[in-house]
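Internal tracking record. Fields below are filled automatically when a chain is submitted to the structure queue. Please do not edit lines marked as system-generated. If the sequence contains nonstandard residues, flag them in the REMARKS field before resubmitting.
Queue: standard
Priority: normal
Entity type: single polypeptide chain
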Amino acid sequence: MNNSQFERFLLDDLKKWIDRREIYAIKGPRQAGKTTLLKMLESWLTVEKKVDPKKIVSITFEDEELLEKFARDPKTYVKSFVGSDDDCWYFFIDEFQYLEKGGRILKLLYDLYPNIKFIITGSSSLELTNKTAKFLVGRVFFFNLWPVTWAEFLKIRSVQLYNVYKEKNEEVRKFIQSGQKFKVATDDIFQEDFRKLFEEYAVWGGYPAVIATSNLETKRIILKNIYNTYITEDITELLKIADHSVFKRLVAVLAAQNGNLLNYNNLATDIQSYFKEIKHYLSILEQTYIISLLTPYSKNRISELKKIPKIYFINTGLRNYILDNFNSLDSRSDAGALVENTAFSFLKFDVLDNRRICFWRTLAGAEVDFVLADEKKIVPIEVKYSNFKSAQLSRSFRSFLEKYPSKSALILTKGFIGEMEIGRSNVKFIPVWYLG
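SYSTEM-GENERATED OUTPUT FOLLOWS
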């Protein structure tokens, strides 16, 4: 299986606005497929849009010699390709975050060359969003390219299952968005097929190169290389971390605490560090798409941001590499946490209507895994990857619905399908793989 065969759904969005002037900035983790996506877009431009290949320039700032030339005189560098030609040109710049003062330089080029469509990628949200965006207000469209999503993975592995999933998922989306009720057949003939693929996805994650091989040892080596590249290149060169050992210990401890509340005092003790350094490292891990910190739900947003977050990994395969555990779900003690993290990735990669993803927890310890929230409505979601015999709710979930009545609520299961009415809340029990 070749990476270039992978259909990435983001490509359709890139095609949609390609004729507009705005710069495209594509953010995402290392090895998520940004470079391959650029090649797909380039191919589409030449084949479908009939763009002269000579009018498409592709460069990468991982090439230090090229980066040095560009940084010294960006105007001359760009002009060396386009000259005084007024035709439409396309400039693809991969790993843009390595360019110092990149936002300022790109603004200058955008204003100087109205005939050039600039398309940049980066694997550091810190560099690409914060430092670039302030110079490019009104001039840039931002896109996230995550590792291969569950929907993309299904389409890669089985078009038949993808077609089944697509129908089910559309019903789930409408249920979340508007409370539109739906009936799911309790006898799902594809349940075992879905379960096997879901558990493979949960264990190995969605890096394209990992999906592209069926050899388990090769998968491990690829994840090892991604981890090592991240530590040596992103951290050492880009973010200037001096003490690698403390940083690596922090990543290892976080992998073991996946899905738990962060206890900064315990972290400081475990890795022999201090609060300010830990906060700095956590910010770096989040900005470089390794982890995501989930804040607790509260109607008071200020209060919400002050409370202790939960930790999830963006890619479960990388998390499992750090723990050196690629065992199947039925033979691992952290199966529940791993499925919960996978469900989180489903939500993270495709947040409906730009809703916030939170969790809920009381001082007494009652907790709901996820809460999708906007200004008007909330949808609680609980992950219960176990064998249900009948529809049943935890005391915590009932407590949440009593305090925050919601039209729609979801329990994500290992295959069980059912529903309950609690007050004015319709609670659906659906297989976790329908959510993606």
